[in-house]
Amino acid sequence: MTFRRIRLWPCLAVVILGGCGHPASREECDEIFARSAEIELRAQNITDPKVIAQRTAEARAARGDELMGRCLGKRITQSALECVRTANTSEQLDRCLD
């Protein structure tokens, strides 16, 4: 099964480069990953929650360990996480993690 490549690298790269905050937990990294995937899929007019969950799981299976390795333990702030939770576009999400 093929699916469009979900653009997660910029989001996780910003987490890696962050200087203050606390080390990102597995749960926080997973939340960033899932939110980023959802935003990207919705931008492709994919709005069915079941399809979003399926595609997110596919992306996680394909690249999740690699992406988790780039996020886990890196510095993140609570305000950045709160921003991620309310972001509705990739641009907003990217700004959350700047």
Describe this structure in words.
α2 (26-43) crosses α3. The chain has 98 residues and is mainly α. Strands 1-2 form a two-stranded antiparallel sheet. It has helices at residues 9-17, 26-43, 49-71, 78-86, 90-96; strands at 22-23, 75-76. The mean pLDDT is 85. The protein has five helices and two strands. 30% of the residues are buried.
Brief digest:
The chain has 98 residues and is mostly helical.
Radius of gyration: 13 Å
Number of contiguous helices: 5
Largest sheet: 2 strands, antiparallel
Sheet with most strands: strand arrangement:
1-2
Our estimate of the beta-strand percent is under 5%
Shape: globular
Structural class per helix/strand content? mainly alpha
Query: What is the mean pLDDT?
Result: 85
Number of strands: 2
Order of helices and strands: HEHHEHH
- Stretches with pLDDT under 50, minimum 5 residues: none
Number of domains: 1
Q: Report the span from N to C terminus.
A: 33 Å
Helix fraction?
Answer: 55-70%
